[in-house]
Write a structure and sequence with these properties.
It is built from two helices and two strands, in the order βαβα. By secondary structure, it is α+β, with helices and mostly antiparallel strands. A two-stranded antiparallel sheet has the order 1-2.
Length: about 110
């Protein structure tokens, strides 16, 4: 489903289950070298038909405006936290310089 593009791919296929224990050639073909798990079967899809749906019946879940509106408070909070973080780092740097000066004065 592609909500922004308002497209949906429909696939009609017949499925065939194959046991890998009975088919070493298929196992070699589908299982990557060094793969630690031991797959037991694969499902082969035999494509019968496919089509892209008409977009008029696919409603986008959220518009870009909806997302911007929803993220507004989050963005404001992030800006607030970043400003607070900057202030705290500046205070820490001043405190560390004062501490260095006191330690150097004692030596």
């Amino acid at each position: 489903m592609d909500y922004p593009g308002r497209r949906r791919l429909k696939i009609y296929a017949r499925i065939e289950a194959k046991e890998l224990a009975n088919n070493p050639a298929l196992t070699e073909e589908v299982v990557p070298a060094g793969y630690r798990a031991k797959p037991e079967r694969v499902f082969l899809l035999h494509l019968e038909a496919f089509d892209w749906n008409c977009s008029q019946h696919i409603t986008p879940r959220f518009t870009e405006g909806d997302i911007d509106t929803a993220l507004g408070p989050v963005r404001a909070r992030i800006a607030q936290i970043e400003a607070e973080n900057k202030l705290l780092r500046e205070k820490l740097a001043v405190a560390e310089k004062q501490n260095e000066g006191e330690q150097n004065g004692e030596r």
